Amino acid sequence: MTVRNLFLLPGDGIGPEAMGEVRKIIAYMNEAKNAGFVTDEGLVGGSAYDAHGAAISDADMAKAMAADAVLFGAVGGPKWDSVPYEVRPEAGLLRLRKDLQLFANLRPAICYPALASASSLKPELVDGLDILIIRELTGGVYFGEPKEIIDLGNGQKRGIDTQVYDTYEIERIAGVAFELARTRNNRVCSMEKRNVMKSGVLWNQVVTATHKEKYSDVQLEHMLADAGGMQLVRQPKQFDVIVTDNLFGDMLSDVAAMLTGSLGMLPSASLGAPDAKTGKRKALYEPVHGSAPDIAGKGIANPIAMIASFAMCLRYSFGLVTEADALEKAIANVLDSGIRTGDIMSPGSRQVGTTEMGDAILAEF
Amino acid sequence: MTVRNLFLLPGDGIGPEAMGEVRKIIAYMNEAKNAGFVTDEGLVGGSAYDAHGAAISDADMAKAMAADAVLFGAVGGPKWDSVPYEVRPEAGLLRLRKDLQLFANLRPAICYPALASASSLKPELVDGLDILIIRELTGGVYFGEPKEIIDLGNGQKRGIDTQVYDTYEIERIAGVAFELARTRNNRVCSMEKRNVMKSGVLWNQVVTATHKEKYSDVQLEHMLADAGGMQLVRQPKQFDVIVTDNLFGDMLSDVAAMLTGSLGMLPSASLGAPDAKTGKRKALYEPVHGSAPDIAGKGIANPIAMIASFAMCLRYSFGLVTEADALEKAIANVLDSGIRTGDIMSPGSRQVGTTEMGDAILAEF
Ligand SMILES: CC(C)[C@H](C(=O)O)[C@@H](O)C(=O)O
Ligand SMILES: CC(C)[C@H](C(=O)O)[C@@H](O)C(=O)O
Questions:
Q1: How confident is the model at residue B116 (pLDDT cuts 50, 70, 90)?
Q2: Domain extents for chain B?
Q3: Residue A90 assigned as binding residue
Q4: Which residues are listed for Mg(2+) binding in this entry (chains A, B) (predicted)?
Q5: Which CATH architecture has domain B1-108+264-365?
Q6: How far apart are CA A258 and CA A178, in angstroms?
Q7: CATH number for the domain whose boundaries are A1-105+268-365
Q8: Which CATH number fits the domain A130-259, given the four candidates 3.40.718.10, 3.90.550.10, 3.55.40.20, 3.40.605.10?
Q9: Is A55 helix (H, G, I), strand (E, B) or coil?
């Protein structure tokens, strides 16, 4: 029987509640479909800091490295706002991304038709929206050195971060974008600030060269990242796949997520390179939303983003495409039926809590 | 009689057409109000490159340094897309900002009531919107060194940019934000990525300390820049003054500008520190929009952003507050009367060209 190893890192805030609903789906797939999921669980973020004094322990890192896929909830909260920089909750997530070499972050920004009116944009601009943002996740200003605060004396300090991109890093993320565009509408828009940044100049050159060499069947466009942010707000449906660097990707994918009106619903996948022998990719799946400490523990959090992240896991880590499609369809059906958590509540809908939402999706699955 | 020296840099694309309408207003103020404006004019961007092989000549830089204020149109266009990095059109603007030490970029994002329906956001979210974004303009990743592309051999290159902020740079921009907040709704939101960037950690600390020391009467909030982008889209009216670094400011002010539906209408001011002796600040005023090469030379460009930039010049460089108010009111009145350039045309309005729009505003002034 196939064994599929999942490592669960629920994290802080609403992470554990959301993860609970995925656990139900995993149990169901094991029982009803013999899916062979074996799960283990660890701590990350503030909860890991409380237990181990680190944002993730070495033991849990080793388990994450060994698993077929990692499911990640959310990290952070006011409780840990003043812990030292090196052990802040986010450091756990950043270490996972870096050590597992998860260079490709896939962030779909889709607008569920049932929720088009929840967007702050006019419904006709977002209804049916389906963008895939491919964000480079292991390079750029997030990890470049030097990264430090220097004391200059006289009460003056200097904060330094370094944006670095090498040709191979740009090539491989561009490759992911072009490959995925071929499975969609065959269009890629690459965003950088080549008019100001040398890394942007290189980014632009390498994406252009990669396109010319291997993917000239895909339609490629370049846009300055600031103009890209504007265009996302002005006319988001003009985009199919967007490829951009770590920091621009952070900003632009959040803006895109908010456009959909479905922030609590958006999943993401972070993938490594295929292993030379086995072809397997290391992978981590996490909701785009944060830990929402204000509503944690109340049983009202929306588990959809976490469940949709598990659907991406089925698709990208295990090739269970039918199951992934079915799970995504189950989410859409439940929304169509008018069942809502508080964050997406609208007049005439029925408001439910976290577990009822999970149950409803499982019943549809 | 007062002499007020203005240096005009119309630049490329629609820059010269838009500047033409400001020239009419200057002439009128000289004649009717004895304003004493003395103007000189230079080249910047692609047009400077064509004439001198540089994005701005040293002679024109000297004139910009000597003037009381610089009025800047726009730079760039496909004609100069492949000129060398050092002499690309944007280099002229960046040199002006750096050499004049214009560290404080003021970008109001206001929504003209007559245009609320032109926003891609729901009208109730933007109607009456009035945000002031204060962007640091002479530091950060725009100017930090090293900034280069290194050849690593083996077909590999490395693109490097450096984000650097010193305490004094953060202090002075925070001071501008707090001062201006006091003339508005007394609220400042500071945005950075302290969870990922050391410069963000320092930014956060210095803004907090500056607030505590000198501006504790102003309400201060901190937000991560990615969350800030989201909140701008979700509920823009929650903000009064936003203060942020050069790169985040570039992105966030463009998103904010687009929200208003009034992109072609938004002005900006870039200010230096007050001179120790005279109290005068160096200053440059420019529209937020670009050079729009596709419509250049057709007489259809919207001159409002350029005219509104001149209103900021009256206010900030010359203390002509009554005149600035009157010019801004004239713009609003013309819009209320249903006169529109093509970019903001709506059913039932009357479409006019660049000069007619300028004339209409002048007639109302
Ligand atoms: C939590 C934080 C470190 C992270 C990031 O900046 O990448 C988050 O904003 C994200 O987008 O996943
Ligand atoms: C033209 C370009 C260099 C500039 C910038 O990035 O600052 C522009 O986008 C702006 O916002 O003024």
A1: confident
A2: 1-108+264-365, 130-259
A3: yes
A4: 226, 250, 254
A5: 3-Layer(aba) Sandwich (3.40)
A6: 25
A7: 3.40.718.10
A8: 3.40.718.10
A9: coil
Contact B324, B314 (CB under 8 A): yes
CA of A60 to the centre of ligand 1 (A): 20
Task: Check pLDDT > 80 for residue A263.
Answer: no
Q: Which pLDDT tens digit goes with each residue over A88-126? A: 999 999 999 999 999 999 999 999 888 888 899 999 999
Q: Which residues of A17-48 are buried (b: 16+ CB within 10 A; e: fewer)?
A: bbbbbbbbbbeebeeeeebebebeebbbbbbb
Ligand 2, from B12, B250, B268: best to mutate by most atoms within 8 Å of Cβ?
B250
Q: Which of B193, B215, B240, B285 is catalytic?
A: B193
Residue A269, beta-bridge partner list: A106, A285
Average pLDDT over residues B229-247: 97
Which pLDDT does position A1 carry in this prediction? 74
Atom 10 in ligand 2: residue holding the nearest Cα: B250
Interface test with B, best of A154, A173, A255, A262 (most B CBs within 10 A): A255
pLDDT at B204: 98
Q: Report d(CA B160, CA A200) in Å as an integer.
A: 9
- Give the pairing of strands A241-244 and A187-192: parallel
Say what the pLDDT of residue A126 is. 94
**Nearest chain A CA: its distance from B228 CA (Å):** 9
Q: State if pTM tops 0.90.
A: yes
Mean pLDDT of B305-325: 97
Q: Which of B247, B253, B262 to mutate to test the interface with A (most CBs of A within 10 A)?
A: B247
Task: Give catalytic status of residue B343 as yes or no.
Answer: no
CB spacing of A120 vs B234 below 8 angstroms? yes
The percentage of chain A sitting over the pLDDT mark of 70, rounded to a whole number, equals: 100
Contact B233 A233 (CB under 8 A): yes
DSSP 3-state of B116 = helix
Q: What is the pLDDT of residue B311?
A: 98
Place of tokens 């554990």: A16
Q: Quote the percentage of chain B above a pLDDT of 70.
A: 100
Taking CB atoms and an 8 Å cutoff, what residues of chain B touch A200? 159, 161
Instruction: Note the ligand closest to the C-alpha atom of A138.
Output: 1
**Does B236 sit behind a cis peptide bond, omega within 30 degrees of 0 on the bond before it?**
no
CA A160 from chain centre, in angstroms, equals: 27
